[in-house]
Amino acid sequence: MGRLSMYASPPEPRERVAARVLCLGNPLLADDALGAEVAGALAGRLPPGTEVVQNELTGFGLLDDLLEVPRLVVVDTVRTGTGPPGTVHLIREDDLRSAPGPSPHYVGLLEMLHLARTLGLPAPQEVVVLAVEASDCTTIGGAMHPALQEAVSLVVELVVGILQDWAQPAPVSRCTSWL
Fold first, then answer.
1. C-beta separation of 119 from 153 below 8 A
2. CA gap 141, 4 in Å, rounded
3. Antiparallel, parallel or unpaired: β 126-133 and 19-24
4. What is the pLDDT of residue 140?
């Protein structure tokens, strides 16, 4: 009996990198195109040992992009209603909570990270999410809100800054008690 696979052919093995920028969103859906815009704007701006991945999928379609990397920056849109369109939220994974119980109908980023770790898969140890407040993520072929268009350059600068910080060696603590 043959093995079932969700791929027409096995996925290409990825080169191990120090950090990955995962830009989420569908470029055909108004403000949801932000991830693709940021991915394009990051070209040539990344420190060595980092990569950008643009993904339009959700749920289990995220799993491969969450593996084999110790540090992950996620860029996405969000609708919290706590700020105007274009507001950038910088969130560390520890600041986030998923729904108070698993849902068979929705599997998102946090659930996939949890699943990967539960299964002992090589998931990132450090995750930062840059979520930009959106206005419209459902209009097919719609233009991005002007505030989100303006936020692209800020998000790019934040991503580059995070990656540069991660690329710096950790400061050595000075312990004088043994001198």
1. no
2. 35
3. unpaired
4. 93
- Conformation bin of residue 90: beta by default, left when phi > 0, alpha when psi is -120 to 50: beta
177 HSE (CA, 13 A, CB side): 2
Residue 117 tokens, joined: 């770790």
Give the model's confidence band at 162: pLDDT under 50 very low, under 70 low, under 90 confident, else very high.
very high
The alpha carbon of 131 is separated from its chain's Cα centroid by a whole number of angstroms, namely: 9
pTM: 0.84
pLDDT tens for each residue of 10-46: 456 667 789 999 999 999 999 999 999 999 999 999 9
| Residues facing 130 on adjacent strands | 75, 90
DSSP the chain: -PPP-SSSSPPPPPPP-SEEEEEE--TTBGGGGHHHHHHHHTTT-PPTTEEEEEE---GGGGHHHHSS-SEEEEEEEE--SSS-TT-EEEEEGGG----SS--SS---HHHHHHHHHHTT----SEEEEEEEE-S-S--BTPPPPHHHHHHHHHHHHHHHHHHHHHHSPPPPPP--TT-
Question: Sorting pLDDT into bands at 50, 70 and 90, what band is 6?
Answer: very low
Edge to edge, the sheet with strand 19-24 lists 50-55, 19-24, 71-78, 126-133, 88-92
